Amino acid sequence: MSENIIVIGAVAVGPKAACRFKRLRQDANVTLIDQDELISYGGCGIPYFISGDVSDEKELRSTSFHMVRDDIFFQDDKGVAALPGTKAIKIDRKNKTVLVRKRDGSEKNLSYDKLVIGVGTRPKALNIPGASLGNIYSVGNLNDAIKIKQMITTGKVEKAVVIGAGFIGLEMAEALADMWQIETSVVEYCDQIMPGFVSRNLSRMAQHRMEEGGISFYLDESVEAIEGTDLVESVKTNKRTLPADLVIMAVGIGPNTDLAKDAGLDIAPGGFLMVNERMQTSDPDIYAGGDCIQIKNLITDKPGYFPLGSMANRQGRVIGTNLAGGDARFKGAVGSFVIKTFDMALAGAGLSVETAKKEGFDAVGIQVAQFDRAHFYPEKEIIYLELVVDRKNRRVLGIQGFGGECSGMFARVNAVASILQYHPGVEAISNLELAYSPPFASAMDIINALGNAAENFLDGRYTPISFDGFEECWQNRQDDDCVYIDCRAYADARVFEEKYPDIWKSIPHNELLQRMDEVPKNKKLILVCNTGIRSYEAQINLADKGFENTVSVEAGVAALKQAGIDFDTKS
Amino acid sequence: MSENIIVIGAVAVGPKAACRFKRLRQDANVTLIDQDELISYGGCGIPYFISGDVSDEKELRSTSFHMVRDDIFFQDDKGVAALPGTKAIKIDRKNKTVLVRKRDGSEKNLSYDKLVIGVGTRPKALNIPGASLGNIYSVGNLNDAIKIKQMITTGKVEKAVVIGAGFIGLEMAEALADMWQIETSVVEYCDQIMPGFVSRNLSRMAQHRMEEGGISFYLDESVEAIEGTDLVESVKTNKRTLPADLVIMAVGIGPNTDLAKDAGLDIAPGGFLMVNERMQTSDPDIYAGGDCIQIKNLITDKPGYFPLGSMANRQGRVIGTNLAGGDARFKGAVGSFVIKTFDMALAGAGLSVETAKKEGFDAVGIQVAQFDRAHFYPEKEIIYLELVVDRKNRRVLGIQGFGGECSGMFARVNAVASILQYHPGVEAISNLELAYSPPFASAMDIINALGNAAENFLDGRYTPISFDGFEECWQNRQDDDCVYIDCRAYADARVFEEKYPDIWKSIPHNELLQRMDEVPKNKKLILVCNTGIRSYEAQINLADKGFENTVSVEAGVAALKQAGIDFDTKS
């Protein structure tokens, strides 16, 4: 008799597991059930459907060759029986059945030999007054997205408030503000956007770009209530009231694992399903994958959580292979990510410096700025990378970057993302071999420059100052004992020197060795250049002459400007 | 007494070693000598100077902050004494001196405590009649480049012949043909462009793009003589005579190691200097780097040769660190590369399938085509990747790719380039974790699809046919016992089916399971779709029904078109 496989959940991991298995075992019966009518869609594409980049939700449910992935497609093209509108009610592990409720309300037991659970998550909601008013959405599924887009396209949204400045919050904010020109505010409880994922420095760059795009940010601020009669009218934080026709609640996601829990499968403390490397739950005949499971963080070797469509797809294939008797493994994740912020991108892998510290590493983040291609090549742009390293053993814990959407930043982050699982030391980054020719990279590529800067820091030759540090010094410039040494060409430094003659001094780096006697003694020296190269060299030259109290502005004036830090001569 | 370091050669590795060392040891004396007057330039940028992308040769000799790197710059900015126009004649290792000849012809002995050799290569020349005629250049240095550009800008070049279709040959061909619209021919001894670096499939795509850009290729053809009176007038091959005002000789490079050889340093069989991981020659006080040395190929673990500015720069830093008493290592290279071919790029790392076979691996190359970003995202393009794997142990030996200059191809190649040193298996590619969101990648990214395809091949589920194989079948379609099953939608297949009713049959993949009885028996089935996904699935469905004699056109019609393979209904 043919084997029966039932797959619960038909968004990402489920369809992948079903189709892979069916390709390997065409004699078997595979049934794919989902409580929703819309199945097998690219959930990560929802913000781009709302933004208008993707005009029709059907595109999110279609193959690359434009076939809509509905039950007919699964039957004809894949030989998989798909049952949309079918909710799994109960798993009976002893009798190996799943009780399902169909569209018409009727219930039925389906027998399985092996079962796959890929039921995803449910969005968290804030437990605050007004949370159940109309026009508050969490973008948890495609149905929500369709409703939001309908509101927008019928002109019902003038002001929107997004709660949460993580991935979904930022993607949704851009979707609303960019093409639709909706007045959009983002409220975030933490003091930066993308908390946990990038450093303050990088977060400030991305935030500044989004502010230029018309989005307002209220950080370090908590939402206390949502106000309105039937529909939302405003969002009340601990500091202000923001009018809103639409609220996007993007405050995180929680596990959707009641079904699994009721069946007695092992559940991790956070509520997510536990699986082994073969993607088996505590019942070897039941597999699970996607956003409802916990997987290993390959940096910390602790349990981790990485809810991404890319994880789900790869896990689905592993499950499909193993269902067919194979031995595929999913070892965990390093946590790679990328998010578009208008024409720029913020990406990373591994741990951010703050997260690494929380995990107990003696972590430091070193940032560099450099052109993504040869500096003499006409098409190029400055990109920003940050390497997170452990001071104790020089191990690389993470990389994050900010740069143009089509810049070389993404390639650099991916290159390091790929090797993080091998626990490289910082020297592996200094010597990382990327493909080189001038239209694509620099001879000393930014990725190597990043490793070099981290080495120089660890070896005590390089002492940077962060944006926050620079800003604090600059705001206190009247009282402070700081002098700014501008290592750029005089033409770049002049306006500053003229406006701030007491504290801003132009000494181009190529004149520094000759003009050492002009360097103020007994002051803290803040060394500045455009990207941080000349200020680093100046720091070394100065240290050699006994000036130990120096800092080099990391990634230089280019980065300060990118972060919107106001210190120019107009201020 | 301060230490004396002499660095012979001031293009790439030399200046880097000198400056890094000087930063670490500011008390030491560093002297950088070069026989040329032009020093510290981006030699890899020469084609872009000639093309006009870089307007002034000074840009190739400038820092990113626009300072020309001449002797004054090295003195003021770096504290390094640079002596252009100073030729090293002889190294006396016993007395630790270098005899140099200065601009004025006078000779002098310079003492060293440690010495660095970074003298690069000299271009090979064909030993054929006419090789010493005027207007034959090898683009070996910036002086040649300046002369070529002068010829072009003064309108002296209407027809050019490039001998050799490797990196320099192709870059130069594009430089001449693109902006200057010079009638450019490339003659290559091998039967493909970029021999040794990419498969025939990928080479045909890049060649086709360059042909569209106006360049003519004469492959599998050898140059027998260069004809002319004083200046070159034509190039005679074994098959034709090509008129030419300018000939670019790009037939490889040879070691420039006479000086080192005379000094008794260990030289490898190919003529290149041998160094250890610390970049020391057989004399521990003499370091060497850049194009004149041999380094380990990290794929084969045999001696390798990787003449690239990026290698030289990283080696220079290693040398600088070690000169200062550090212990930096340069372990070898996997051979990453990228070359721009008009608006497209060809890139790779590790071994090509042919090279791998020559090295004794049981190698196979598996190719896939897929969008670089989510297929529903509006901005995306199909890119092509090939994975080279060892059938015996499933080890990944190399990756190569072709795609748009700004596409995601480059990021994918770099990601695999980065891990090749760790000797990954094919499963590491199926599960490689790149940063994902729809504007940057697919949920099942092309890199994972590539690993999956290779796995499916190795597991006997996928039997592809190459472009050459397809073309041969197609050309013999009258006599052949092949039937083409078109797995695309009927709308795409119709014109072919109507024109070739006997051999071309439309069975869209989603109808295949129902229409199995229409599949011709006892024929070789050539399965076609747009990118190879549906034809792969069809192959599996057919195998299940007993059709074993099938091949799937790798990377599909999209790839055939990209390679300019003429099989459309107009033919």
Describe this structure in words.
The structure is a homodimer of 571-residue chains. In chain A, a hairpin with a 5-residue loop joins strand 5 (97-101) and strand 6 (107-111). Helix content of chain A is 29%, strand content 25%. The N and C termini of chain A lie far apart (79 Å). The mean pLDDT of chain A is 96. Chain A contains 18 helices and 31 strands.
Features:
homodimer; 571 residues; alpha/beta; FAD/NAD(P)-binding domain; 5-stranded parallel sheet; 18 helices; 29% helix; globular
What strand order characterises the main sheet of chain A? 3-2-1-7-19
Which parts of chain A are unreliable, with pLDDT below 50 for 5 consecutive residues or more? none
Pair with the biggest interface? A-B, 107 and 107 residues
Cα-to-Cα separation, first versus last residue of chain A: 79 Å
- Quickly give the structural class of chain A: alpha/beta
- If classified by CATH, what would the architecture of the largest domain in chain A be? 3-Layer(bba) Sandwich
> How would you sum up the major sheet of chain A?
5 strands, parallel
Query: In what range is the share of β-strand residues of chain A?
Result: 15-25%
Helix content of chain A: 25-40%
- Which overall shape of chain A is indicated by the principal axes computed on the Cα atoms? globular
Number of domains of chain A: 4
Radius of gyration of chain A: 27 Å
Task: Give the count of helical stretches of chain A.
Answer: 18
CATH class of the largest domain in chain A: Alpha Beta
How many E strands of chain A?
31
Q: How confident overall, as mean pLDDT of chain A? A: 96
CATH homologous superfamily (4th level) name of the largest domain in chain A: FAD/NAD(P)-binding domain
CATH topology of the largest domain in chain A: FAD/NAD(P)-binding domain
Please identify the oligomeric state: homodimer
